[in-house]
Design a protein that fits this description.
This protein is α+β, with helices and mostly antiparallel strands. The chain has 11 helices and 35 strands. β29 and β30 form a beta hairpin. The radius of gyration is 24 Å and the shape is globular. The relative contact order is 0.12.
Length: 556
C-alpha cells in the first residue's frame, strides 16, 4: 500500500558551480544522468573544515520554464525539518518554558490518555507508539499532495483508540509526533513554530532563504518544483504539492543556508550559546529496557566504513534530501533533489568514498575468510546458487524473493518491487556489484536449502528466515469479500474477486491485488491484512501498514 526507494546514477553538462576542488570531475561524474537540459536533478554542497568547498546544481528546478538548479535554489527538505523542531524544543527548555518529561496533555489537554503516560521525550525519539498520520491519511483515502487542515489531521490522530505499542517499548517512526511537537512549540512559545524558528534559529544564523512553510498561498523565491519519472515512457510528471503542514516536515531551504546550520553544530551561536545544547541534540533516546532507541533529536548517529556519521534524510512528493556529517573529519555532504527516483543518501556515501578515501576502511579489502572460519558468528561455507533461492522474511509480509536469472542470484524486494543482482565475494557472502555497503550472508543448510539470510547494512544486522510454503488449497476466497468499516479512519474498504484474485478498493485509489500469506492472512505492498472469524465466519480484519498497526475493521 506504500511504495518507496530507488537508486540512481548521474553527471556532466555543468550548470553553476562554486568552489573548485581537484576531485570535482569525479564528483560531477556521479550526477551525469541528471546534469542535462531537460530533466530534474539536485543541488549539492560539500563542506570541509568550516568552508563550503564545492557546490553545484545539476538539472532543472522548473521543467516548464527551463530554470536551472543552483546552490541558491530552494527545496522542500521533508523530514530534515525535524531537527529544527527538536532544536526549538531544546531552546524552549533552555528558556524554562517546557521540560522534556512533561506529559503531552500539559500542552494539548484534549489529547487522549492511554494506559501509559506520553511525554515530549517519547515524541522526540519516536518511542510513543502514536500512529503515523501520513499513513493514516493514505489509508483513509486522502492524497497528501492536497491541502489538509491542521485540525483535520489532529482529529484523526486523536480518533485512534490504541497505540501501536506501549510508550517506550520500542522505536517506530511517527510523523504524528513531530506534527504535534510543532503544536507544543506554539503553546509553550506563544507563537507559531514558523515565527519561533525564524526569530531564534534562521535569522540569527543568517539563513535568509529558510522557513517553515505553513501557508501554501505564500510565495517562495527561487523555489524548486518536484517530479516523478513516468512509468512506461520518457519524461516526468509534475507532482503539484499543496501540502503545508509543519513539524513532521515543512522546511524549505537551500545549500548555502544549510551550510550555516551545519557549522552551528561545531560552534553554537543560538540560545545561550555553548555546546551543551548541541551535545544534547546527539543524545539517543532510551527504551524502557534501558537500551538505545537508535534515534537522537531528529539526528541519526551512525558509522560508515569506520567513520562516525550524523545524518537525517527527508522525502515528500518528488523531493529528496540528505544532510550527512562526518563530525570527526569536519566534513559534510548536503544533497537536495527534486526527483522521486533520487537516493541522496547513496550519493552522499559515494562522495565520501571519493573525498575521504584515505580515512575509510574499505570492506572489500577484507581478507577472504576460509571455509570453516566464522564471521559475525555465522559459519561461512560455500553453497550452490540453487540452495540459496527462495523467499526470506524480514518480518510478516516483508519478503526478499531470491531467484536465479542468467546464472546470477537475483533479489526482488516484494514490498516495493526494487530488484538487483548480487554476486559472491567470499564464502557464503554476497554483495551488489560495485557496492559493498550491504552484505547478504546465507547459513543453516536444511533439506538442501539455506534457512537463514542475514543482511548487514550500516552496522545493523537483520536476520531473515526462509518462509515455508503452506497448503492453502482449502481456502475459499469468497469468505473475504464484502465491505469493511473502520471507525478510527471513518473509512470503508471493499474486498472483491477479479480473475480469481482477491482485490482491495480504497476510496478513489486503483484497486490492488492481495497475496495469500497464510490462512486468513494476506499481504499487499508489504502491508498485512489479518482477517478475524466469529463462529467460523469472517467478522472483520486488522491491518498492519508499516507505521500503523492493529487498525481494526468490522465487516458490514
Amino acid at each position: 500500500m506504500k511504495k518507496h526507494y530507488l537508486l540512481l546514477i548521474l553527471c556532466s553538462f555543468t550548470v553553476i558551480s562554486f568552489g573548485q576542488i581537484k576531485e570535482n570531475q569525479a564528483i560531477d561524474s556521479l550526477f551525469v544522468e541528471w546534469d542535462k537540459p531537460d530533466v530534474p536533478g539536485c543541488a549539492l554542497g560539500i563542506i570541509q573544515d568550516g568552508k563550503l568547498i564545492y557546490s553545484n546544481g545539476y538539472g532543472l528546478g522548473d521543467l516548464e520554464h527551463d530554470i536551472q538548479i543552483t546552490p541558491t535554489s530552494v527545496f522542500y527538505t521533508g523530514s530534515v525539518s525535524k531537527q529544527f523542531v527538536t532544536f526549538s524544543i531544546l531552546l524552549l527548555e533552555e528558556q524554562g518554558k517546557l521540560e522534556l518529561d512533561d506529559k503531552i496533555q500539559k500542552y494539548l489537554p484534549d489529547f487522549p490518555e492511554y494506559d501509559t503516560p506520553l511525554t515530549i521525550r517519547h515524541f522526540i525519539h519516536h518511542t510513543s507508539g502514536v500512529r503515523d498520520y501520513l499513513t493514516l491519511m493514505y489509508l483513509k483515502g486522502r492524497n497528501y499532495l492536497d491541502n489538509t487542515d491542521v485540525d483535520e489531521v489532529y482529529q484523526l490522530i486523536k480518533k485512534q483508540k490504541e497505540l501501536n505499542f506501549s510508550p517506550g517499548e520500542k522505536y517506530l517512526y511517527s510523523n504524528s509526533c513531530y506534527f504535534m511537537l510543532a503544536m507544543i512549540v506554539e503553546k509553550a512559545a506563544g507563537q507559531s513554530i514558523k515565527e519561533f524558528a525564524d526569530e531564534n534559529i534562521f535569522q540569527p544564523l543568517g539563513m535568509k532563504n529558510t522557513l517553515f512553510y505553513d501557508d501554501n498561498t505564500d510565495l517562495i523565491k527561487n523555489r524548486v518544483f518536484s517530479y516523478s519519472k513516468k512509468r512506461d515512457e520518457d519524461g516526468f510528471n509534475n507532482l503539484i504539492m499543496r501540502f503545508d503542514l509543519v513539524g513532521s516536515g515543512g522546511v524549505y531551504s537551500c545549500i548555502e543556508d544549510l551550510f550555516l546550520w551545519d557549522q552551528n553544530f561545531y560552534n553554537n551561536k543560538l540560545g545561550k550559546g555553548g555546546q551543551d545544547i548541541i551535545d544534547k541534540m546527539h543524545e539517543e533516546g532510551l527504551l524502557n529496557n534501558g537500551k538505545s532507541s537508535g534515534y537522537a533529536f531528529a539526528l541519526n548517529n551512525g558509522t560508515y566504513k569506520g567513520l562516525k556519521t550524523v545524518s537525517h534524510g527527508g522525502s515528500l512528493a518528488g523531493y529528496r534530501a540528505q544532510l550527512m556529517r562526518f563530525p570527526e573529519e569536519r566534513f559534510s555532504v548536503i544533497i537536495l533533489a527534486n526527483r522521486g527516483d533520487a537516493n541522496p543518501t547513496r550519493k552522499s556515501f559515494q562522495i565520501a568514498d571519493i573525498l575521504l578515501k584515505d580515512k575509510l576502511v574499505d570492506e572489500s579489502q577484507k581478507k577472504e575468510i576460509k571455509k570453516g572460519e566464522t564471521a559475525n558468528t555465522t559459519t561461512l561455507e560455500e553453497f550452490s546458487l540453487n540452495q540459496l533461492t527462495g523467499n526470506y522474511e524480514i518480518r510478516a509480509g516483508i519478503v526478499l524473493e531470491l531467484t536465479l536469472k542468467n546464472d546470477s542470484l537475483h533479489v526482488l524486494q516484494t514490498w516495493n518491487k526494487s530488484s538487483y543482482n548480487i554476486g559472491n565475494t567470499f564464502g557464503n557472502t554476497y554483495e551488489i556489484p560495485n557496492d559493498n555497503s550491504i552484505q547478504f550472508v546465507f547459513s543453516e543448510l536444511n533439506d538442501d536449502f539455506t534457512q537463514i539470510l542475514t543482511v548487514f547494512q550500516n552496522g545493523n544486522e537483520t536476520i531473515c528466515k526462509r518462509k515455508e510454503e503452506l497448503d492453502l488449497s482449502s481456502i475459499n476466497m469468497e469468505d473475504y469479500t464484502g465491505k469493511y468499516y473502520s471507525e478510527e479512519l471513518d473509512a470503508t474498504y471493499l474486498f472483491f474477486l477479479e480473475d480469481e484474485k482477491l482485490k482491495l478498493k480504497i476510496a478513489n485509489y486503483d484497486s490492488q491485488e492481495l497475496n495469500i500469506y497464510e490462512i486468513d492472512t494476506f499481504t499487499s505492498d508489504g502491508d498485512l491484512v489479518r482477517f478475524k472469524r466469529s463462529n467460523g465466519l469472517i467478522s472483520g480484519f486488522e491491518l498492519d501498514a508499516g507505521r500503523v498497526t492493529n487498525l481494526k475493521f468490522e465487516k458490514k
